[in-house]
Amino acid sequence: MLYPVYVHVGDAKHAHGVTVPDFPGCYSAADNWDELPAKIQEAIEVYCEGEDMDIPAPTPLETLTAQPEYQDGVWMLVDVDVSQLSTRPVRLNVSLPEGLVKRIDTYAKAHHLSRSGFLAKAAVSEMERQGR
To answer: What's the pTM?
Structure first.
């Protein structure tokens, strides 16, 4: 989804600063223009992490350009992968060997986690380990 972001243009000594108006308090920065989209995606993901929130629709650029706090920089439209933002649980059916389920439950209980919480953490850990 294309979101408008406001860029405070940097110089040789200062990074480009970014404000994401549709996510109040969400900011980012990058030294190079080509780094901005990835940095913005990351900033929005961190902003939404652990929050049970509705993902806002992008504000029309015409609405934002009229606001006085956005007069000294430039606007960009950044394609944000909103599928990475939702933290709402999704119910799914998974079949696992009974012995493995018992081991998972024992581990989860010992670490004050639910079965779902443990499986989610394990999945994220494995994907991060593989760089995905």
So the answer is: 0.65
